[in-house]
Amino acid sequence: MASAVSLEYLKSLMGAPGGLPTLDGDGEIPVGQLPSIIALFKGQFADEAELIDEHPTAGLACYAYVDDTHSFWYWNPGLTVAAWVNQEITEDDYDDLSDLAKSMVLYIIVPGAPTP
Questions:
Q1: 50: left (phi > 0), else alpha (psi -120 to 50), else beta?
Q2: Contact 95, 89 (CB under 8 A)
Q3: Rg for the chain (alpha carbons), in Å?
Q4: What's the average model confidence in pLDDT over 84-103?
Q5: What does DSSP say about strands 108-109 and 62-66: parallel, antiparallel, or unpaired?
């Protein structure tokens, strides 16, 4: 009896928010079952306008590559108006960030690059 109840309980958690992830046909966890904090690559775009056209909004850890700036852009919901931001910073500027800032935002370090 206890094992049947335990099995039914585990089945009820499969694929449920806060429960147990399942695997798709390729043996991967479906994106919808990943926590929202997971960084999700949105793709490669010719320019910022194309990125915004295809993804006018995104999640906290979403990022994309923009060809005309040769850089990664990240969605920043913490701004007055949430937006895609080119977050390339120098290594010195990165070192000056608080530990909290370093843990919450993905940065690409560009040695010697000017600060935006």
A1: alpha
A2: no
A3: 19
A4: 70
A5: unpaired
With bands split at pLDDT 50, 70 and 90, how would you rate the model's confidence at 44? very high
Handedness of CA 99, 101, 104, 110 (dihedral sign): negative
Distance CA 93, CA 34 (A): 31
Confidence at 116, pLDDT banded by 50, 70, 90: very low
pLDDT at residue 51, rounded to an integer: 93
Question: Is residue 91 within 8 Å of residue 107, measured between CB atoms?
Answer: no
- For CA atoms 74, 77, 83, 86, the dihedral sign is negative
Answer whether 85's CB lies under 8 Å from 73's CB. Answer: yes
Its pTM surpasses 0.85: no
Q: Is the pLDDT of residue 55 over 70?
A: yes
Locate 104 and state its tokens: 């919450």
Q: Quick one: CA torsion of 78, 42, 90, 98, rounded to 10 degrees?
A: 40
